[in-house]
Amino acid sequence: MANCKICNKEIDEGYICNECAQNQRNQQTPPQQKSGFSLNGLLKTQPPKPASTLPPASTLPPSSRPDPFPPITPFPTTAPGLTANTSFNQGSSVSTRQPVAPPPPIAPSVPAFTPNPVQTAASPGFSPSQPTFSAATPSSPTAAKPPTKPPTTTKDDSEDIAVYDSKVTGYGDEDLEISILSGIMKDNYILEALKGKGLIPGLFSTRYSRGIFRSVQALREESPDLTGLDKIVLKNKLKQLNLWDSTVQNFLEKVLREPSPMLDQCLHYLELMKEQALKRKLKEISHEINEFIDAPPKNENENLESFTNKVIQDVRNIQKARTTKRINLVREEMKEITADMDRREINGEVDIIGYSFEPMHYLNLAVSGFRKGFMYAIAGAPRRGKTTFTLELATRVATLNKIPVLFFTYEQTKKNLAYRLLAKESRLNPDTLQRKKIKSDMIADAKFMGGWNKMQEYMDYFYIIEATKEDTVDRIRSYAYNVMQDFNTENIMIFVDYIQKMPLSRNYNDEKFKVEEISTELKGLSIELNNPIMTISSLSKEGCMIDATPDAERPTMYHCKGSGDLEYDLDCAMIQAKDWGDTRELYQQLQHKAEELGKDSTRIPKVDVVNLYLDKNRDAPEGIFSTIQYLFFIEDNKFIELGPKYDDDRFRFSKIEELVESLIQANYIVFFDKPKDANFNKGRVSIKLKNF
């Protein structure tokens, strides 16, 4: 004996009874010839009307109305007998729920009949000579533009989704779901980001919220270039899918009136929805237990032992979904690695791995750019130009990569740093920019316009945030997600000036533990965002004293203030220290050059030679230098890279002599004229007091 899968009538054998089979043959239309299976085609096809005694869907109460949408994600086999009045039966129009085989997983954005280039390259047996196809094919006219990051569904992904997917409704928060639907309707980036984090129809608690989500998802796939979806478009889609009624209309009105939330809010709401979905899953398990106890199992192979094993497994899946992260075999990572190697065989080699920040050429090669998921830190004594150097790197990242860059400062104002940026680009002193007339001075005005033009290259990508005691790592995470949403990108870089000033939600008496926790949280944030983070660290008094004396010893990461385990969290640790020997030689040769040119040798431009030591450089390229020299023009807030520093100082004089000539020719060194009364004051000291 068996049951008909449509009307639940008992039959001798088979899947459906003769009456249902005859009705389906009468209602069946000639199928269109397709080369595969697509979600768009599935959603456009109306479900067949069952040969049951149920009234039309429009006359059913909302709690028992069947869902016209077929399930997008696999659903596990459930126990029979749960009626539509107590559950949300997806893709079915019968009053009882029978165990069915889970449908095959469907990629939400990519048609199954058009192989995606990334997925094809990652598949076994792929070679560069094999052709790849785009999603825009004659069989899929709506897929005119493939998504930026096509979703891939693995076996583990399907299992994770099935844990949250439930046919039971209720146990939800209407305001929360309205806010989520408002966000995905008005911003496609929010939809893609939440889908990547596990947003599925089963997370919504009502029939109409699930239906609106699937409608939005289908419309986004059909027209990915739409910036926002309005009421008319959604209304027609819902009518096409036979879901439009007064209840859905009222709910949609609430969604349209709701302001769109920010991405960081949506991510928090998503976690709350997952918790509510697991409660519905528990409710579904309780229904199965009650039905197993009250009615004998219709499957003769199901006994108490097999049923309890299934229930235990379902409960364990719920527990794992809330207590552990999904883990994958290394095979999945190896597929991505081999796919990347195959792409390089076709497109050629890459110079660096991360974000470029040329013209800091030698440092750019030494660290292979700022890599995603890496954490960087630069430490040094006061007056060594840590902030200026970091601003130089930050602006170059924004200029070359056209990605948003966030610069958090805990010790200076935004306006002050903006003046320093302008001074760096125009080579005008920040004090001059704030006090003197610029427009009426022809030379100063020309320098200002040159600096303004350089700043325009990154002005629209660079943020300076005056951080306060409220700006913890969690707040930085919110800023990052919201800016990524504004730019519709997954690429971003964060700079923090500096780590010892960052606040925590709790207070520590020992600064060592405070810095340890902050560095651990920042490292976790870089991994979560999959983007680089760079922070500045100050030195302890001992480290500052070491840097202030012209000895062979130099400061290290162990001399950072409250360093703790900072050096262990970092992927790249950089130390700035003054090169006293080269700076002294540069100063002496500048004095001689000023005397030779008849200039004032007592007013030499303030220029330091600064060494940058790469004390830790994870996965560094082969044969790279670990010490790089820079010229720091203190008055102009400007760094110029000189190149690697060699241990041999025998050629220091000739090196500095050549450097001085180059700086004078490039107009980086400008000497002052001698005062007119210098001859009268020779041999004696003249003191003049103003206002006396």
Notable traits:
692 residues, alpha/beta, DNAb Helicase, Chain A, Rossmann fold, 9-stranded mixed sheet, 13 strands
- Which assembly state applies to the chains in this document? single chain
Q: What is the top-level CATH class of the largest domain? A: Mainly Alpha
Name given to the CATH architecture of the largest domain = Orthogonal Bundle
Helix content: 40-55%
Number of strands: 13
Q: Report the β-strand fraction as a percent range.
A: 5-15%
Give the total of domains.
2
- Strand order, main sheet: write it out: 7-6-8-9-5-10-11-12-13
What is the topology?
Elements: E1 2-3, E2 10-11, H1 18-27, H2 39-44, E3 82-83, E4 96-97, H3 117-122, H4 155-164, H5 174-186, H6 188-196, H7 207-222, H8 231-240, H9 246-257, H10 263-294, H11 304-323, H12 330-347, H13 361-367, E5 375-380, H14 386-401, E6 405-409, H15 414-426, H16 430-435, H17 442-456, E7 462-466, H18 473-487, E8 493-497, H19 511-529, E9 533-538, H20 541-547, H21 566-569, E10 572-578, H22 580-596, E11 607-617, E12 627-633, E13 638-644, H23 652-665
Parallel strand pairs: 5-9, 5-10, 6-7, 6-8, 8-9
Antiparallel strand pairs: 1-2, 3-4, 10-11, 11-12, 12-13
Helix pairs in contact: 5-6, 5-7, 5-9, 5-10, 7-8, 10-11, 15-17, 18-19, 22-23
